[in-house]
Amino acid sequence: MAAVGVAFGGLFAYIAAHSFGSGDFMALGMAIVGMLFGYAFGNVLGLVLVKYALRQRGSVILGIIGAVVWTGLSIGVAALLNLSNDASSWVVSAMFLLTPAAALLGFHVKRAEAS
User: Fold this and answer.
1) Which of 42, 91, 97, 101 is the most buried (most CB within 10 A)?
2) Is 35 strand, coil or helix?
3) Cα gap 31→18, rounded to integer Å
4) Phi and psi of 58, rounded to 5°?
5) In terms of Cα–Cα distance, which of 114, 10, 5, 23 is closest to 64?
6) What does the alpha-carbon distance between residue 74 and residue 97 come to, in Å, rounded to a whole number?
7) Can you tell me the distance from the alpha carbon of 59 to that of 111, in angstroms, rounded to the nearest whole number?
8) DSSP letters of 17-57?
9) Tens of pLDDT, residues 46-99
10) What letter would DSSP give residue 112?
């Protein structure tokens, strides 16, 4: 699942960097944003592949919500706390490690059964 995330992160970073110019600072910023959102998208796609290719039981919707919420939370906390370059590596590392974990956690949560 994370391998698909890394692949899509690289693809989104390449597309974003080349769409907004080459060799300037905006291209670098867009490559980073593309990498972050591409990684989350790739994790969601990997979750769907796990669900249907391996025929695993679980909730794809809750897995998607877990991946999107954790990615947004990671980026939001970094923006709200105005983290410097020293702490930003921890935030990015947490996003890359915990986004698949949040997606899998949401995927394996049991829905409440109607009585």
Assistant:
1) 42
2) helix
3) 8
4) 165, 170
5) 5
6) 11
7) 8
8) HHHT-SSSHHHHHHHHHHHHHHHHHHHHHHHHHHHHHTT--
9) 888 888 888 888 888 888 888 888 888 887 877 777 766 666 677 778 788 888
10) P
